[in-house]
Amino acid sequence: MQRLTVVLASTRPGRTGPVISDWFLELARDHPGFDVQLVDLAEIGLPLLDEPDHPIRGRYRHDHTRRWSAIVDASDAFVLVTPEYNYGIPAALKNAVDYLYWEWAYKPVGFVSYGMSSAGQNAVAMLRQVLTPLRMTPVSPGVAVPLRELVDEQGALHPTDAMSSAADAMLAELARQVTALAGLRETDSVPDTVAG
Predict the structure, then answer these.
(1) What is the pTM of this model?
(2) How many structural domains does the chain have?
């Protein structure tokens, strides 16, 4: 079984993210190829990047960085459940990405985005720019959730068949990419400080 880590990217009080990640987790846990875990950045609680060395060196001074490194390193694929804030990604997500370097390489990533007019698609476009230089492989399709149409005043999500179909297709593509990228991950040279 491959480890799929679903990252809940919003950390703000009153966030909508948990109802969306709960919906996606239920689908993902039915996929036969993945062992699925949720990582909530609000619970991880990374401070604003505070490592004195560049992440490419893999020399981590802080326990919170070593814990985050272990989670990402043990993961084979990711799904980022992210809102769009002011046409971009949440600061907590960019911060979490920037903490590490080698641990992200040659791993596929899918997106479940949400927002108002664009359903989070501007955030996804930004994430593709941020993650590709880390040698991650963004997959399509993604899931885009328009909040005005699908989340009611009580905060309940009303998913559509199209959302479920897109999620299933994304999970299938993630599984294919994990297999395709496995050889690159095995031959990649990771510094002993990270690999050990």
Answers:
(1) 0.94
(2) 1
